[in-house]
Amino acid sequence: MPARSQKFSPLKLGKRLPPAVALHEQARTRLRGLIVRGQLPPGAPIIETELSQSLGISRTPLREALKLLAVEGLIELRSNRTSQIAALRGAEIEQVFEVMAGVEGMAAGLAAERASANDLKRLRQLQERMELHHDRGDRDDYFAANQDAHRLVVACAKNPILAATHDGLFARAERARFLALASRSRWDDSVAEHRDLLIALESRDSAAASRILSHHVARTGRVVKEEIERAESKTPAPAKPSRERKPARVDDIV
Amino acid sequence: MPARSQKFSPLKLGKRLPPAVALHEQARTRLRGLIVRGQLPPGAPIIETELSQSLGISRTPLREALKLLAVEGLIELRSNRTSQIAALRGAEIEQVFEVMAGVEGMAAGLAAERASANDLKRLRQLQERMELHHDRGDRDDYFAANQDAHRLVVACAKNPILAATHDGLFARAERARFLALASRSRWDDSVAEHRDLLIALESRDSAAASRILSHHVARTGRVVKEEIERAESKTPAPAKPSRERKPARVDDIV
DNA sequence: CAACAACATTCTGCATACAGAATGCCGGTT
DNA sequence: AACCGGCATTCTGTATGCAGAATGTTGTTG
Question: By C-alpha distance, which of A223, A151, A231 is closest to A186?
């Protein structure tokens, strides 16, 4: 009676499908998205009880998520005080992109030496996709492909620590870029710079790749910063934003 | 009856002395120290209940601290499983120092342009202190001064985001360096390299400063990695470490 | 009318309680 | 003797309760 293995397939049934991701992880991802996309605006207060209800979880996993998001610079924790969605100052943007330029420059240099043939193939595919979206004027699609490209270049450096470092900065940069939709001429330039980068990578020119991507990021940063500061000057200071202290009802969003 | 302000000084009494640092923050600092110094060895399991008792706190703040330490790469979180003190593989060390070299190189380049006269003065003082400890053979004192120097150079770049990024890597690097006490000849070289760096900074030679520090860190990394791998080969694989599953009783340490 | 102080309210930080997942043990089977 | 299945135990993930800190409010005083 070989009646074993009744309840479920004993040998690999592929992959167990839902790894049942933890609540604090879900909350983290979800909140990051809301903050990056500006649906939770800078300066908005975070009342834990309120937010936890909106998310349908308890305060415990929420607090864990908040601590982590604070590391990413998306939330400002104030000891014993209500935390806030992090502000978005021009000066800070400048610093983020300065570091990003260095990190991605480094990554591109290494990628030129370490990228596999397959890596380069995928990069080229992404490049074509970007150019397609650019020609068609699909901003959002371009945006997504562009981010994939940046991440892929970093991945090609074959250094997980570098990738993690990059990731830690990425959310902040993405958030800033979201608020500052770049101009058309910058868009054109950006596509061209990506093309140059790809050529440098394919010819294994480490120094050129590093320089090109670093400058590309720096320029993007400059544009974003100017855009943000333009917005800042329009809203000089909320001075006394009356007294309503609910700049963001999360319920409407979540 | 001008009897106001009885309970305590109404106008600033300097600074409120004990800001009463939160438990999760204390736990984080304490655990980081224990891990970096090797008193909580790589691979040691972390039973939350046990550890929280050892630390005299509850699981809630401990868990928050663990999540943060995981971001620093000191702890490996395994969903629904007991977490562990992060392993310390040679390959990983290599990656950490590769990134550190890039980050500190970038920092030195910026520092050459942005360091104030006072910054340079303090750097020179640190350099003298390092040379003193080196001549006397005070390893620990040298070690401390050396770390201060690296941090100060990064601070001179006047970019808080860069400093935070650096800090995130520092604990890992420090941990590796702790396990691998460098050789004497490397020590001598190291002091010389620091001197060269200082000269480059003082003469505002950005490119040179960047190159010198980057190479300095890379060399250190190579030494540390070799040391670690030497240790690894001695302990090829714990195979079946019998069945005692308490590689580290924290009570003895804390 | 401005300023201050005591109070009431709100929110955070921490501890504890509970349910589900994972692991190890033990007996039964081939 | 090795393997498998089921059970007991252990540990994590989450929810809830409670005390202290911080803030807003109100009444009072100069």
Answer: A223
Q: What's the burial of B236, exposed, middle or buried (CB within 10 Å: 0-12/13-18/19+)?
A: exposed
Cα separation, A47 vs A251, whole angstroms: 13
- How far does the CA of residue A135 sit from the closest CA of chain B (Å)? 35
SS3 A120: helix
Asked if residue B254 has pLDDT above 70, the reply is no
Alpha-carbon distance B176 to B224, whole Å? Answer: 7
Strand D reaches within 7 A of the B63 CB: yes
Q: Could you read off the pLDDT of A80-92 as tens digits, one per residue?
A: 999 999 999 999 9
Which of B:5-34 have CB within 8 Å of A? 19, 22, 24
Contacts of B165 in chain A (CB under 8 A): 99, 103, 165, 168-169
Shortest distance, CA B97 to any CA of chain A (angstroms): 9
- List the single range of A55-59, B114-118, B142-146 with lowest mean pLDDT: B142-146
**pLDDT of residue A237 exceeding 60:** no
Q: What is the mean pLDDT of chain B?
A: 86
The distance of B162 to chain A (nearest Cα, Å) reads 6
CB contact under 8 A, B95 and A63: no
CA angle B16, B22, B26 (to 5 degrees): 110
Scanning the structure block, which residue is given the tokens 């305060």?
Answer: A59
Which nucleotide is closest to the Cα of A45 by its C1'?
Answer: C11
Identify the closest residue of chain A to B80 by CA–CA distance. A22
Q: Which of B24, B239, B245 is nearest to A67 (CA)?
A: B24
- In 10 A of CB B36, how many CB atoms? 21
How far apart CA B13 and CA B8 sit, in angstroms, is 9
d(Cα B80, Cα A20) in Å, to the nearest integer? 10
Tell if the CB–CB gap between B102 and A102 is shorter than 8 Å: yes
